[in-house]
């Protein structure tokens, strides 16, 4: 069965996007993993499947490169807004609102959540910060912006072996649904950030990670909104006021389209 796909990225966080709105596609963990494979498939950090929605203009399902289906993806939602023109997108993590503003795309995610059972954590404990540590990373802030994030603030981002520490933190039993791991350095110009993504590893940028990190910094009164978050792939501008959804603005790039035999 031949299917058309689009390859897009947001700041180097890359996606294969399949449109199942008119001809449905039964996605499995194994098929998602195969398509995401950079040697034997097309290659991406996340596979995105578009489907019809009863509550928004379309539904977006998100599969990490390891095949796991997850709730939200900030960079992919900007790409889907750019590709389809949709102003509302249903995800398992809530409805996302989007708007193209010149070369950039702005999306508004859900109102962030902070309770231990909303992250979720395995046990009742504080989340601002979580009283835990892993080697030279400790006392992270836990934030759910549709998907679960930990945010570690450090003095020097370049001192941290995030690829070495990421897997143990992501899969720690404290996080029953695993977790995305963000390491952030606050500076005069905003935040420098690296994210070890659940199910995908170190990526060049993570939109929900940038949102969770900016929200944690604003809550801790280290910065005020809007916040520039610079990742290896580029910069996003994140805005948030307590009690409101968090918004993100940045590039979304179409790379190519093609056909694959499934
Ligand atoms: N790259 C994404 C987040 C993708 C999902 C994440 N790895 C998870 O498992 O929750 C983004 O731009 O937000």
Number of strands: 19
Low-confidence stretches: none
What is the fold named in CATH at topology level of the largest domain?
Diaminopimelate Epimerase, Chain A, domain 1
From the spread of the alpha carbons, the general shape counts as globular
Q: Give the amount of beta strand, in percent.
A: 35-45%
- CATH architecture classification name of the largest domain: Roll
Ligands bound here? Answer: ligand LBFN2T5F
The average pLDDT score comes to 98
Element order, helices and strands?
EEHEEEHEEEEEEEHEEEHEEEE
Helix tally?
4
What is the terminal-to-terminal distance?
5 Å
- What oligomeric state do these chains adopt? single chain
Radius of gyration: 17 Å
CATH top level label of the largest domain: Alpha Beta
Question: CATH superfamily membership of the largest domain, which one?
Answer: Diaminopimelate Epimerase, Chain A, domain 1
Give the structural class: alpha+beta
How many independent structural domains? Answer: 2
- Tell me the helix content: 10-25%
Biggest β-sheet description: 17 strands, mixed
Keywords: Amino-acid biosynthesis, Cytoplasm, Isomerase, Lysine biosynthesis
Family: Belongs to the diaminopimelate epimerase family.
EC number: 5.1.1.7
Active site: 73 (proton donor), 73, 206 (proton acceptor)
